[in-house]
């Protein structure tokens, strides 16, 4: 998995000293920019260029050589419906360095530059996939290094989610964490197989025991000063549903059920690469939810690391089980913040769709910091409530907790309430119910694995702890 951290020049800015051609941004219906020759203006008019969103008109000089391009950005209403308007040009422009010009005040240039970098991603592990050759010179005033680190993290999250389960199981996820640790000088340990029972992680063991690929809890630590931040990510490398077997139509994307772990590692990469002064701990419960004679069963009851008993009413609600033991371990140190990331419920997608993950927290300062950082870092989030009147829905009577309340109502909320029961010593806790998948290709967003939540968390850390 060390190849996950390879250098990707297509996801970096062009050298600022490169000889760059201008890409003039033109609002639909606006006059053509000044500085064009009469021949260039006549050519653009003859081509019918109006500034319509996504339209492109290449410009030549008097010798016929490429001299620049006009990029249509549409009107304000059209731009509001696109996350990365300029990323679409990266795939259309000829190879080389390009410099933005024209109506730059219409854009959040940091977001647009980040989207351009994202457009350079291609998943080429199994088949050739050529990335765009057009490179952007970082607009003046932007923190180019920070944006490039975010792009690196995005590539890591996408790669991990995109790799199929036959090549990425619990052991390979551990290998990826160790490679990240080596890159940044972090320490990584793991509790594997039957040792999970010996060291007090019964729920992680129960979910993963039916697979020949041993379950494990991966533990990465980095930094020796500053606030302690614990990141916990769901690492279900494939989810058959267990004995509550998923239908084939629901199993097709289950390689992405470790999207929480993928995005947690991506977040950790940003924190470490940017040198944020925190004590970081990453906990990844990595399992494969398989079917075998020793698989855990509906109606089984297990006592968790926290001491809470859990009745299993659906083996396909396994993510919250492995997270419960990992959260309990994180909570034992009472860190300054715990963030949990998981591809946890279909209910979240029904409520908010694939593009807008909900997050849950009781801490108002944390909620505000995440909301602001999500906007500033092109990382959409929406706050949902830990709705206390629903607590009774996760209490089955025969055990402390029910892993899958009947009825299907408020599924994302009840899952979040379940997880909160395992965080009792830490004041600041947030849970992110992410999708980690882009269903259809769009500018800056290739179809497939996708990063969600990590950039908002990094931005919020700076606000919360004045880093």
Automatic annotation (TrEMBL):
Q: Extract the signal peptide range.
A: none
Question: Which is one Pfam family of this protein?
Answer: Peptidase_M17
Coiled coil is among the record's keywords: no
Q: For the Cytosol aminopeptidase domain, which residue ranges apply?
A: 314-321
Q: Name one GO molecular function term.
A: metalloaminopeptidase activity
Task: Give the record's keywords alphabetically.
Answer: Aminopeptidase, Hydrolase, Manganese, Protease
A GO BP annotation: proteolysis
List cellular component terms (GO).
cytoplasm
Q: Which SUPFAM superfamilies match?
A: Zn-dependent exopeptidases
Q: Which InterPro entries match?
A: Leucine_aapep/pepB (IPR011356), Macro_dom-like (IPR043472), Peptidase_M17_C (IPR000819), Peptidase_M17_N_1 (IPR048816)
Q: Is the Transmembrane helix keyword given for this protein?
A: no
Q: Which Gene3D superfamilies match?
A: Leucine Aminopeptidase, subunit E, domain 1 (3.40.220.10), Zn peptidases (3.40.630.10)
The similarity comment for this entry is: Belongs to the peptidase M17 family.
> What name does the UniProt record give this protein?
Leucyl aminopeptidase
């Amino acid at each position: 998995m060390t190849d996950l951290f390879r250098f990707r020049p297509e996801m970096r800015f062009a050298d600022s000293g490169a000889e760059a051609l201008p890409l003039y941004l033109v609002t639909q219906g606006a006059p053509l920019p000044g500085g064009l020759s009469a021949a260039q203006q006549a050519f653009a008019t003859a081509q019918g260029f109006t500034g319509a969103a996504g339209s492109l008109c290449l410009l030549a000089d008097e010798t016929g050589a490429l001299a620049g391009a006009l990029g249509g950005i549409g009107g304000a209403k059209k731009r509001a419906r696109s996350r990365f308007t300029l990323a679409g040009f990266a795939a259309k422009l000829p190879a080389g360095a390009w410099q933005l010009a024209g109506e730059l005040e219409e854009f959040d240039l940091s977001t647009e530059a980040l989207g351009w970098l994202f457009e350079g991603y291609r998943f080429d592990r199994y088949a050739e996939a050529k990335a765009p050759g057009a490179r952007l010179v970082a607009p003046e005033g932007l923190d180019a290094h920070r944006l490039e680190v975010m792009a690196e993290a995005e590539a890591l999250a996408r790669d991990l989610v995109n790799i199929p389960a036959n090549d990425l199981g619990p052991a390979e996820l551990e290998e990826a964490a160790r490679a990240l640790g080596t890159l940044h000088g972090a320490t990584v340990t793991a509790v594997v197989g039957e040792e999970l029972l010996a060291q007090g992680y019964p729920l992680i063991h129960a979910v993963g025991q039916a697979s020949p690929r041993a379950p494990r809890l991966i533990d990465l630590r980095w930094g020796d000063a500053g606030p302690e931040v614990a990141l916990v990510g769901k690492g279900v490398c494939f989810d058959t549903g267990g004995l509550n077997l998923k239908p084939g139509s629901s199993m097709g994307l289950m390689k992405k059920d470790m999207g929480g772990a993928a995005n947690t590692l991506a977040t950790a990469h940003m924190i470490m690469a940017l040198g944020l002064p925190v004590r970081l701990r990453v906990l990844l419960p990595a399992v494969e939810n398989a079917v075998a004679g020793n698989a855990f069963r509906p109606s089984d009851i297990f006592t968790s690391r926290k001491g809470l008993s859990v009745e299993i009413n659906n083996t396909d609600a396994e993510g919250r089980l492995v997270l419960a033991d990992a959260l309990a371990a994180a909570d034992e140190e009472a860190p300054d913040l715990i963030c949990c990331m998981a591809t946890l419920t279909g209910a979240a997608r029904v409520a908010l769709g694939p593009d807008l993950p909900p997050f849950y927290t009781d801490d108002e300062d944390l909620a505000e910091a995440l909301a602001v950082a999500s906007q500033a870092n092109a990382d959409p989030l929406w706050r949902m409530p830990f709705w206390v009147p629903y607590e009774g829905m996760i209490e089955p009577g025969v055990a402390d907790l029910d892993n899958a309340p009947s009825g299907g109502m408020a599924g994302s909320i009840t899952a979040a309430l379940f997880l909160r029961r395992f965080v009792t010593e830490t004041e600041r806790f947030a849970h992110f119910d992410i999708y980690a998948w882009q269903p259809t290709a769009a500018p800056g967003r290739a179809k497939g694995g996708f990063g969600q939540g990590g950039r908002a968390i990094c931005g919020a850390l700076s606000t919360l702890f004045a880093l």
